[in-house]
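In line with agreed milestones, work has continued on tokenised descriptions of protein folds. One protein thus recorded appears below exactly as we store it:

>
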Amino acid sequence: MLITNLVNLYVKKLNAAGINNSLEEIRLMIQETLKIDLATQLLEKDLVINENQQKLIKKCLNRRLKREPFDRILNKKTFRDFELDINHNTFSPRKETELLIDIIIDMKLNPKYILELGTGSGAISIALM
């Protein structure tokens, strides 16, 4: 299957499902799951993906169609300037959590010890280190 055909098909499906930025999400999903960078996706119009690649990307995109969060599908979340591994057992840090870090930094708090209960991904502790 041509990658452009797959992209066009899923843009329509995601748009119909009311998912914003569908083209960006599909391109990023291809980059992350199939390791095909954006430049290659855009410049190689005749790029063909094999059956295994099709199954993998379709599985991910179908999960997104069911409105599963993008970061849950990829099992990773960018938080501030680092990438966290997440899974179904951890909360995915939100933008509000980044605001908490900013407040602590702005207040120039420099605690000697930090206790973060129920750390989940550990985003707060990692960011404050």
About this structure: The chain has a mean pLDDT of 90.
